[in-house]
Write a structure and sequence with these properties.
The complex is a heterodimer.
Chain A: H1 2-11, H2 31-34, H3 36-48, E1 52-56, E2 65-71, E3 74-80, E4 86-90, E5 105-106, E6 111-112, E7 119-120, E8 126-128, E9 152-158, E10 161-165, H4 173-176, H5 178-183, E11 199-204, H6 208-216, H7 221-224, E12 237-242, E13 246-251, E14 279-284, E15 288-292, E16 296-306, E17 309-318, H8 329-345, H9 347-356, H10 373-387
Antiparallel strand pairs in A: 1-10, 2-3, 2-5, 3-4, 4-9, 6-7, 7-8, 9-10, 11-17, 12-13, 13-14, 14-15, 15-16, 16-17
Chain B: H1 8-20, H2 24-40, H3 44-61, H4 66-75
The chains are: A alpha+beta, B mainly alpha.
The structure holds FE2/S2 (inorganic) cluster (FES) and fe (ii) ion (FE2).
Chain lengths: ~400, ~80
Amino acid sequence: MAPLDQKTLVDAPSLDPVLQPVDVARGLPNAYYTDDALFDLEKRKVFFNGWAGLGFAHDAPEPGDARPVDFLGAPLLMLRDKQGVLRVFENVCRHRGMILVEEARKIEGAVRCPYHSWCYSTAGKLVSTPHVGGPGQNLHPDIKRDELGLNEVRSHIWMGVVFVNVSGDAAPFEEANADLLARWAEFDQPLHHSGADSSFKLDVKTNWKLAVENYSESYHLPWVHPGLNSYSRLEDHYNICEYGKFSGQGTLVYNPQLSDDGRAFPNFDGLSEKWDTGGEYVTAFPNVMIGVQRDHVFAILLEPKSVDHTVEHVEILYAHSDAMADDMADLRAANAKMWKEVFVEDVFVVEGMQKGRAAPNFDGGKFSPAMDEPTHVFHDWVARRLTT
Amino acid sequence: MRAESIDDEKLGAALIAAHDARDGARLARLYAMAADAKEAGGDLEAACFYLVHAYVHALEANAPESAEIRKRLVAHGREA
Ligand code: FES
Ligand SMILES: [Fe+2]
C-alpha cells in the first residue's frame, strides 16, 4: 500500500503551501476536492487510519438491532447484543465473504448468513457451522469457531456518535481526542434523543472538507446567516484553534428564544458559568461537527459519498429527559427548525466553493489570519495525515 | 413436538410455504418433525441432516427448542 500512496502524492499538487503558518499559508489545492485518487488516499489515511464518525448510538437502540452502514465503501454492521452492548463489525461472513445483513432489522436470535447459514451471535461469535464437516455434521477439526467470529472494528461512543478506527492501530479514542474531551468534560452526561423530530439529513454536492471548513469559522455568519441576529455578530465569537487536534468557534451570546411563554429546555447539571450564554462549535476531525450549549448538543456527521458528494446527518440531543416530554414537542420542533434553517443557508456556499475548485488557477485561497485560522488548523491536520 | 407427524410430500409443501413466509420458528418445527420421522425409521444420517436445519432456523429465530435440538446433535457428535 505504501508505494501506491507515495505515487498518488508524488503526482498530486504539493502540500507545502498548506503547511506554512496561517499568515502565509494557502488552502488545500483543488485536486484534494476533485480527484478520485486523492479521495481514495484520504479515505485510508484520514478516515480508516484514525477515529472517524460512523453513525449514532441510537441508530441501533434496542438489543438485537442490526444496522448495516456503508463506510466509504467498507461494509460495516452496527450490532447491539442481547446485553445491550453496541459493537461494530465488518458486515461479512468469515466463510466466503458474503454480506450478512442487507438492511436494518432486528436479530431475534442469531445472525444467519444467507449463503451457507453459518450463524453468529449478536456479540459476533460464530455459534454454528451447518454441514461444515459434511452432511448432517456441524463440526470439523479445521473449523475453529473461536477464531472465526465476525471481524470487530474498534468503536467508541461519544456525544451520541459511534466513532470507529478501521485500521485498528490508532491511539485509544480517549487519548487521540484527550484535549477535546477535557474541554467539554462538563457535557459528559447522559444525552436524550427524541427521534425523528430531532433528526434530519442534507444531501450536498460538495467535498466533505468544505462542510468542515465552513463550520469552522464565524467570518461568514453576518453574511450568510443574517437572521441569526445576536448569534451573527462577529464580536461575540472567538476562534478555537488546537493544531494537530481540533478547531472551530465559540459564541458568548447563546440565548435561544424558542417560545413566547417562557418555556425552555432544562440545562445540563452542574455547568460552570461560562456556559450560561456560551456555545462552542468544533469539529472532531475528520468528519464529526459538534455543537454544545447549556441545554442541548448537536452532532453533524459527514458521510462522504464521493469526492464531490456528501450527506450531512444532523442529530440533536438534549441535556435532560424532561426535554423529551410531549408538552415540549413544539419547542423541539422549533429548535430543529432553527438549526435546519441555519444549515440549509450554508448549502449554497459549500456547493459554490466546490464548483469554484474547478477554476484551474485557483491556488487554494488566501486566508485571513484573523478570521480563518480554524480552517487552516483543519487543513494542517489533513495535510499531515495525508503525508504520514 | 414429536406428537405432530408429517409425511414427505406434505412436509415439502409446508417447508416451501414457511420459507416463503420467512417463518424461522415454523421452519425449525417442520425440520425437527422431519428429523423425528427419519430417526423413528432408523435413518440417523437423514435425521441429523434435518436436525441441522432445525437447529439453524431455531437459532436464528431464537426459538425455545434450539437448546433441545442442540443436545440431540451433540449426542450424535454433530454439534459442539
Ligand atoms: S458465506 Fe456465509 S456461510 Fe458461506
Ligand atoms: Fe454557517
